[in-house]
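Quick start: what a row looks like.
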Amino acid sequence: MEHDAELKAMVKEKYSAIANQDKAQNLTSCCGATSSCCGDDVYNLMADEYDGLEGYNPDADLGLGCGIPTAFAQIKPGNTVVDLGSGAGNDAFVARRLTGETGKVIGVDFSEAMLERARANADKVGYNNVEFRLGDIEHLPVAGNLVDVVLSNCVLNLVPNKAKAFSEIFRILKPGGHFSISDVVLWGQLPEKWKQVAELYAGCVSGAMQQYEYLEVIKAAGFANITVQKEKPIIVPDEILDQYLNTEEKARYKQGDVRIMSITVYAEKPVSPCCAGSGCC
């Protein structure tokens, strides 16, 4: 538990610093505003471009995602949507365009700095049905059986207790509701030294699970119809590899023993009761 608290404090510190930068600054800084290093940014290795999506707000895009879950989330007008780790509001605003004025979007983040920025962005566009709440994904400030769709973009990876996070997602979804989550997973074993680097954890790399384990956690939480909607390899530039790996380790990485992948996963909360850990009864 103490280790988990330390990880959360580190992630909160890193992302609170990033909240005070714009996307251009994030793309040219290595580890956020508090870093003394330079070069390509670990946080931005995985970001997809939102340009052209209806509801996209450049002020809310810090380039921190690893997919576009809203593109796969099947959001309908009138839906209640929760965005976990909502940051400056990027996915929440795209979701709001899809759910319309009759729906509701709730963003949850545990960085006060991010919440302040997201709320300011919402005020600029005059949305009165987008709300940003302070909260921990392992203990969501959302009532049970309330939500039609849950989104998250490269954030669940940062949660120490992923089983608890997915059980909370299950709790807040209505029966028949679903999630679409973009996240980072591994194929093969990550070099041990990567796991010790705070910047890599906060950048969603060293906290990554094996893909099959990630999907098993979702299944164990009681979800059904689990589908990988999209997957893509994350290409780590040589400049970053050189910071953390020696020549031999770098060569082994490039041979393909390990792959860092971005996946977008869909799953549903069954309408009928489901036995956690064994699939639907």
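That is the whole record. The mean pLDDT is 80. The first strand starts at residue 80 and ends at 84.
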